[in-house]
Specification:
single chain, 416 residues, mainly beta, 4-stranded antiparallel sheet, 35 strands, 0% helix, 46% strand
Length: 416
């Protein structure tokens, strides 16, 4: 019987109080630290590499995706976001922006020498938003004009296949806790003319967020009988649509996938509403296979997000819980966590079940103010808070990367 094992570690860079992981591939993880610098990590905080360009007057940067060789994201220069790619270090950066002809550009995926993303250009009251693929640094506009939709974004790439969406509304950059009822999921093969509309019958809208080269994954939206977003898999056509939405969740989506697994999140309660809870989810191709990783969060933490998965089953993401202090100041500190053993781990929790195998969880809390290691699973020390800036005190947040493994048996173990 096959089983799954998940470990988590805090890999916030030692030079930063916060961070966020956005993608993973073959033992590499990318994201952004609390200094607004793009980062690359190799499994723990001590390996963190600052990718922020040292030249070119860039004042912030974010890494959004990686493959085995290259990383990509964007950097900000003179008020304009520029799509960027790196090859493992800050000095290897390439600014991809100039060939797009846009005002702003973003790289959202990278694989095999190709990068994908989108560009934006405001002209008076009209915003142009077009999907792009970069081949050897040169941009190709993927906007599918034949679909009669004014806006598009490419969000993932694998083995020469690109995915994203086209829309009649220019949805903003970044995540919003709202539906996108004007989008249709799209898959491309390198040209605008190759665009295929994946929107499934019976659903108003959809977006493809990731691809493994053969399957596409994301979500499909319906407003009947009630507003709901469903985690979705496709295999190149609208008719191939497979609904992964698990029972017990109001909304769900897939954000990353391998040949065998899918990761994403689901909401219990209306998306983004006060009192609703966001859960990190892992599937193996069916709604019934879902594993909710929130059950292994430390006490006091509730919301978790998965942003990617690599071929070994390592899931990256973050946990995000804003906390209000007595002065009603609100804020959050995000701590990235990656699943690899090191000598700093203080807590282990393991659950095994005969049908699903076991999930193993490791985590610690690192207090950067006094270099003391504390156990997040037991909650924070009584009355503990730390200064983030501007006189605002916030409880820290813990972020998780779950590592996949295998085992057999039935066991419950809790040790500190």
């Amino acid at each position: 019987m096959f089983a799954q094992q998940y470990n988590s570690n805090n890999v916030t860079p030692p030079t930063s109080l916060s961070g966020k992981l956005n993608g993973a591939a073959s033992g590499k993880q990318v994201g952004v630290d609390g200094n607004n610098h793009a980062i690359l990590e190799l499994g723990d905080a001590t390996t963190s590499i600052d990718l922020h360009p040292a030249t070119g007057s860039y004042y912030s940067s974010v890494a959004l995706a990686t493959d085995d060789v290259e990383q990509c994201g964007y950097a900000t220069q003179f008020g304009s976001h520029h799509a960027m790619k790196w090859n493992g270090s800050a000095s290897t950066y390439t600014d991809l922006h100039s060939s797009t002809g846009m005002t702003w550009s973003y790289c959202t995926g990278s694989h095999g020498g190709q990068q994908v993303g989108f560009g934006e250009r405001p002209v008076y009251t009209v915003t142009f938003q077009n999907a792009f693929v970069w081949n050897n640094g040169l941009a190709v506009n993927l906007h599918p004009t034949l679909l009669l939709m004014a806006y598009s974004k490419a969000l993932g790439v694998r083995s020469g296949q690109q995915v994203g969406y086209a829309s009649t509304v220019p949805y903003p950059v970044g995540e919003t806790f709202s539906y996108h009822p004007a989008s249709h999921a799209i898959v491309w093969a390198g040209t605008a003319a190759s665009a295929i509309d994946l929107n499934p019958t019976g659903f108003t809208a959809s977006e493809a967020l990731a691809t493994n080269g053969a399957q596409q994954a994301g979500w499909a939206y319906s407003n009947v009988p009630a507003l709901s977003q469903h985690a979705t898999l496709w295999a190149g056509t609208s008719a191939s649509f497979a609904d992964l939405h698990p029972a017990g969740y109001n909304d769900s989506r897939v954000t990353g996938l391998t040949a065998t697994q899918q990761v994403g999140d689901g909401w219990v309660g209306p998306m983004g509403a006060v009192g609703s809870v966001r859960h990190t989810l892992v599937w193996t191709g069916t709604p019934e296979s879902v594993v909710d990783l929130n059950q292994f969060l430390p006490a006091g933490y509730t919301h978790a997000v998965a942003t990617g998965i690599d071929a070994l089953g390592n899931v990256v993401g973050y946990e995000d819980d804003p906390v209000h202090d007595s002065d009603d100041s609100a804020g959050s500190v995000q701590r990235d966590v990656h699943g690899s053993d090191d000598g700093r781990q203080r807590h282990q929790k393991r659950v095994t079940e005969s049908d699903a195998g076991y999930i193993e969880y490791h985590h610690e809390y690192f207090d950067s103010a006094d270099s003391d290691h504390r156990n997040c699973a037991g909650g924070l020390p009584h009355g503990y808070a730390f200064l983030q800036g501007g006189g605002d005190h916030h409880e820290p947040e813990c972020h998780f990367h779950f590592r996949h493994g295998s085992a057999a048996g039935r066991d419950w173990n809790h040790a500190v």
